[in-house]
Automatic annotation (TrEMBL), chain A:
One of its GO terms (biological process) is toxin catabolic process. It catalyses: RX + glutathione = an S-substituted glutathione + a halide anion + H(+). It is an enzyme of class 2 (transferase). This is glutathione transferase. The gene is GSTU17_1. One of its GO terms (molecular function) is glutathione transferase activity. Keywords: Detoxification, Transferase. The keyword Lipid metabolism does not apply. It comes from Vitis vinifera. Residues 4-83 form the GST N-terminal domain.
UniProtKB/TrEMBL annotation, chain B:
It holds the Pfam family GST_C. Coiled coil: none annotated. It catalyses: RX + glutathione = an S-substituted glutathione + a halide anion + H(+). CDD domains: GST_C_Tau, GST_N_Tau. It comes from Vitis vinifera (Grape). InterPro entries: Glutathione-S-Trfase_C-like, Glutathione-S-Trfase_C_sf, Glutathione_S-Trfase, Glutathione_S-Trfase_N, GST_C, GST_C_Tau, Omega/Tau-like, Thioredoxin-like_sf. Belongs to the GST superfamily. Residues 4-83 form the GST N-terminal domain. Its EC number is 2.5.1.18. GO terms for molecular function: glutathione transferase activity. This is glutathione transferase. Gene3D superfamilies: 1.20.1050.10, Glutaredoxin. Keywords: Transferase.
Length: 233, 227
């Protein structure tokens, strides 16, 4: 299949775009990566995702697919040969979808909330909530992995992708707030999983460098703080 | 596995539980429905959905599946007759995209119109809701149902809008969808609600209206008291 048949509109800091990179790698699909400047979105992005105007967008045979988890499932179904991203059993698939929804609808907003929290008390509460979510996910990991390396077992799968994409941003939150979120003694399963995830062949080359991400986050959040300060004057 | 007993933990006035009943009925699956008291949640509900403690939850073969969109896909994958999602991966991705849109956007803004009194907040919700409904209108253009000629996954996901919206408009005195501005959506409301297995499961209108009025009163007074 020609490289240009599969295009990914992404942005290097985006955890959601990272999900798609990993899924494409799992299936060994050749693709063209188009880096978007999120402050100056391309015509292609605005046309391909007119509803949300966000990355990632997968363009396959000139048809755009949006929403990272919809894209990951699309990749699993359009390239249906092994390895699979979702399990084959309907109940196991439901469990995987449930946890991916928990991550997107509950846990990620909490992680995002850390940057938005104003004042020490609010920050602490936001960080505690992220940690509590990780404790829930630790239990989920225990049940899903059944003693193996990943949520999906021996290989990276749907929930691994859904959660693993945020590991760089967890590091950013830890460094910026001088705390530990992925606490090894409270979440030993997840701590080990995180290392294996980042080292995996499908992830290693596409995961952004954590310190570059930290630098990027610092820059964005300082710019935002300056904007808020000047608009408050 | 598919022949085992199917139980739905639901609530008669819940749009999300209704989605599941529609899916089960569409596929001709026999099920038992248990009405949960959401103000006094049962041990059964807390056991079967410990993370969110919400309905709907599907019980099948000793397993519990919460979250309505997750349940819908489980039902479609377990019982293959009358498929809800299309076969083509691209069409499936579109259905999932729009389902997420409806659940993230319309599910917040339409109740937002309802849960606010006349004023800025309500006006803002109304404008957003109309904007989102316009986007859905475009998806329906040239089609009888979101699923094409027949009802599919997205029709079942959006179905609550067809039934609940007129009640919300009536109670708040606000019109969001009129036939002139929303010809496709208006036609779809009628077509969807006429489908026999959709119609037979709709909560009784007088009972729902009374329930929504009481529910709104509680919502508004709790906002006033900042509870």
């Amino acid at each position: 299949m020609a490289t240009s048949d599969v295009k990914l509109l992404g942005a290097w800091p985006s955890p959601f775009a990272l999900r798609v990179h990993i899924a494409l790698n799992i299936k060994s699909i050749d693709y063209e990566c188009l880096e978007e400047n999120l402050l100056a979105k391309s015509q292609l992005l605005l046309q391909s995702n007119p509803v949300h105007k966000k990355v990632p967008v997968l363009i396959h045979h000139d048809k755009p697919i949006c929403e990272s988890l919809a894209i990951v499932q699309y990749i699993d179904e359009a390239w249906s040969s092994a390895p699979s991203i979702l399990p084959s059993d309907p109940y196991d698939r439901a469990v995987a979808r449930f946890w991916a929804a928990y991550i997107d609808d509950k846990w990620f907003p909490w992680l995002n909330g850390v940057a938005n929290a104003q004042g020490a008390e609010a920050k602490k509460a936001a960080l505690d909530q992220v940690r509590e979510g990780l404790v829930v996910l630790e239990e989920a990991f225990g049940k899903c992995s059944k003693g193996k390396d990943f949520f999906s077992g021996d290989r990276i799968g749907y929930v691994d992708i859904a959660l693993g994409c945020f590991l760089g941003w967890v590091y950013v939150a830890e460094k910026r707030n001088d705390v530990k979120l992925l606490v090894e003694d409270k979440m030993p399963g997840l701590a080990a999983w995180a290392n294996k995830f980042c080292e995996d062949g499908t992830v290693k080359d596409v995961m952004p460098d954590k310190d570059e991400l930290l630098e990027f986050a610092n820059m964005i959040l300082e710019a935002r703080a300056k904007l808020n300060a000047s608009s408050n004057n | 596995m598919a022949r085992e007993e199917v139980t739905l933990l639901g609530m008669w006035a819940s749009p999300l539980a209704l989605r599941i009943e529609w899916a089960l009925k569409c596929k001709g699956i026999w099920y038992k429905c248990i009405d949960e008291d959401l103000l006094n949640k049962s041990q059964r509900l807390l056991t079967h959905n410990p993370i969110h403690k919400k309905i709907p939850v599907l019980l099948h073969g000793g397993k519990s599946i919460p979250e309505s969109l997750v349940i819908l896909e489980y039902i479609d994958e377990t019982w293959k007759q009358n498929p809800l999602l299309p076969e083509d991966p691209y069409e499936r991705a579109m259905a999932r995209f729009w389902a997420k849109f409806v659940d993230e956007k319309c599910w917040t803004t339409i109740p937002g119109v309802f849960g606010n009194e006349r004023g800025d907040e309500q006006e803002k919700s109304k404008e957003k809701a109309i904007e989102e409904l316009r986007i859905l209108e475009k998806q329906l253009e040239g089609k009888k149902f979101f699923g094409g000629e027949s009802v599919g996954f997205l029709d079942i996901v959006c179905g609550w809008i067809a039934y609940w919206l007129p009640f919300i408009e009536d109670i708040t005195g606000l019109k969001l969808v009129d036939e002139t501005s929303f010809p496709a959506l208006s036609a779809w409301f009628k077509a969807y609600l006429s489908v026999p297995w959709v119609k037979e499961l709709l909560p009784p209108p007088d009972k729902l209206r009374a329930h929504l009025i009481t529910f709104r009163q509680k919502l508004l007074s709790s906002r006033l008291l900042n509870i």
